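Let us work through a complete example step by step.
Step 1: write down the sequence.
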Amino acid sequence: MLPVREYLGSALLKAGLDAKAVTIFKKDLKENSNNHWYLKWLYQSLQKKINGQLQAS
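Step 2: predict the structure and record it as tokens.
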């Protein structure tokens, strides 16, 4: 079985849809708390989201 949400979150992150990527990765991390990749991607998406907010202000 392919981890569809993993690919979806990654695609959202690459597309600049950081808030949606955060939502996907948070949900995946709750369901798969032993998967360190979700934590890494959540961190990256939050970092991009924060940087985007700082640049906008």
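Step 3: interpret the result. The chain has three helices and no strands.
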